[in-house]
Amino acid sequence: MTRQIIIFLFSAFSFTNAHSQTAFSLCNDLGLQRSFKKEQQFWAVGHTVHANFHFTPKNAIYFWLSYYSDGKFSNALFADAKSPATVPQKINYTNSAQMRFKQFSTGWKRYLKGSFNEEDKWALYGYAGFGLLLGRVINTHSVVIDTAAYSVPVRSGKANFKRLTFDLGLGVDIPIGADIYFYTEGRVWIPTTDYPSNYIFVNNNAPLVGMLNFGLRILFQ
């Protein structure tokens, strides 16, 4: 992840140097993440780095890279026997899961009040963009189940998965001096693809997550 951040920042600065007339902001924040989907609810903490390219006072193109800690949740499930001769016909068990996300997003940032270079007033802005979510899930069953004899709703073990997302956000920018701004943002990632996985109990329109982030924006102009 450190290598990805370095590549991300290097690419952003290279783009800025090639387009010196475009103002550029570098943003860095910490956030609290909540997974809202029923049967897949958890909390996690994370970090995001942004690059904003301000082509007008109110409009910018953004790029961000986010990564979050493991979120933990559990589901009470049962496995069905594949054969009528198998005893017992059902096995009750608990699946304990850990789920973690990394996400790349790009899109449009629009200042609804004020502009990117306010000097003494707060500004309000919104985001709309598309992202690629890279997820990992680790499942641990409370009992060992023979999957040759039983059908399970979610498999034990570790797996990676991907989702395309539609990303929305709303934030407030507050100048604190010397082209440095404090900001707070609310974001949501809405999945646009399913790609069902045998390691994820809820696949339909999931994961659906929201974030509350706090950070600093440094303006270069």
3D architecture notes:
The protein has 221 residues and is mainly beta. Helices cover 8% and strands 62% of the residues. It has one helix and ten strands. It has one helix at 2-18; strands at 23-35, 42-54, 59-68, 71-81, 90-113, 123-141, 150-151, 157-177, 180-191, 209-220. The protein has an eight-stranded antiparallel β-barrel with strand order 1-2-3-5-6-8-9-10. Strand 2 and strand 3 form a beta hairpin. It is elongated, with a radius of gyration of 22 Å.
Global outline = elongated
Low-confidence stretches: none
Radius of gyration: 22 Å
The span between the termini is 28 Å
Major sheet description: 8 strands, antiparallel, barrel
User: Would you tell me the structural class of the helices and strands?
Assistant: mainly beta
What structural keywords apply?
10 strands, mainly beta, eight-stranded antiparallel beta barrel
Blueprint of the fold:
Elements: H1 2-18, E1 23-35, E2 42-54, E3 59-68, E4 71-81, E5 90-113, E6 123-141, E7 150-151, E8 157-177, E9 180-191, E10 209-220
Antiparallel strand pairs: 1-2, 1-10, 2-3, 3-5, 4-5, 4-7, 5-6, 6-8, 8-9, 9-10
Short description:
The chain is built from 1 helix and 10 strands, in the order H-E-E-E-E-E-E-E-E-E-E. The protein has 221 residues and is mainly beta.
